[in-house]
Amino acid sequence: MKIMYRYIAGLMLATALVTGLTSCSGRHARDGRGTVAGESSMVDYTKKKPLRVKFYLERSGSMIAYDSPRGDGSFKAAIVTMLNNLPGKHNRLFVVNDGIYPYPKGIDQFVSDGNIFGTTKGIGNPSYTDFKKIFDNLLNKTGQGELSVLVTDMIYSVKTMVGVNPQKIFADAQGMVSSVFKENVKDKSLLVVQMQGSYNGPYYAYDAPAKGWNYDGKRPYYILVCGTNGSFRQLSQDERYAKFRDFEAMGGFQNEMLFTAYGHDNVFAPYCSFLMATKEIQGRFKPGREGGNGITKLVDMRPDRETGKLRLALAVDLAGMMMSETYLQDPKNYRVASDDQVTIREIRKVTERDRTPAEKKYIGQATHIMILEIDEIHHHQNVEISLKKAFPNWIASSSTDDDTNRQSGLFGKQTFGLKYLLKGIDEAYTRVSDQPYYFTLSLRFEK
């Protein structure tokens, strides 16, 4: 039965090659929120100018110890790697603390500096960091064709913190971020990357910002990338940025979270297409005929006579998503909207074995294959598969309300008040988009 099915599928596939079929990018399928699925993959970014990047380095008291001569150099190495992976020659460097100051010597000199905090000594006031001014600059001074990159410890501090209840500090921090981001996030995206580097020097706790105590060990720090949704589309698709956006490959990488508003000007619109001859398929169906390079519509769908199931293979391009493979390959992170029950059984990477002559055209640039399972199709219906956007658990576990206990086993893994800053950002994005998704794939099933 399965051999006969593959023979029939092969005949249908040959016919499809002549007539042309539907795909996420081929027919510009609307994802239900105004975005054209696959649209971003159609742009030839080799003909576009590189993004202009403004790089901001926080130089506060608690940052200096990341580049101590006693350390392992991982902090400086990560920054140099980022800068070296940026194409173009119009990138600029700033030092931030109580204000935002241009680095006078240029990026080339910065990269070659033996002590980046030594050569920036005297720039600004390192006793506190004005996050309101910095975040406002990232959001409102980053225009089309630009990216802003901030390296920071994300420790909220103001001029007067001694004797102040930590909960008041956190409430102020969350409110400040939420107000700064406000409506400005509708067409802006923000990537937060958690890193870890060696820390050798004085640490300044919230209750004694003028009296540091020495700490030698590992500490988290953060890379924030901000830009318009258009700039993020280029960042995710332009191969000139493939190394830069691959933060997982950097030494010290821990976690990442992308904040973006869904439904207005979506960053992601992945290509997708059903496959017709892979061994994982069960059941009988035909490709719909709407023109294009891929298949997003299936007709005459019938369960497999032996298993009683319909099992489909959907190829999807998840390259450049700036999310961990663990997140992308977990079916629980996807929402399936359909009349009949459609279950994602597995998500795996595309292998060379998948790129057979019969499937090569439909796999296209896809990086992953979703295995979908259906018991029965009762009537014609639309099916939508959406990647969920959730506030990750790592943010809460990486946050502390008390950074005075350096003997704690978690001191080297947690940041004072982190969750309040990031929750304020999340609230701002939630206000402008109540749909917690990164993208939606639109499919059509007909009985």
Automatic annotation (TrEMBL):
It comes from the Bacteria. This is Lipoprotein.
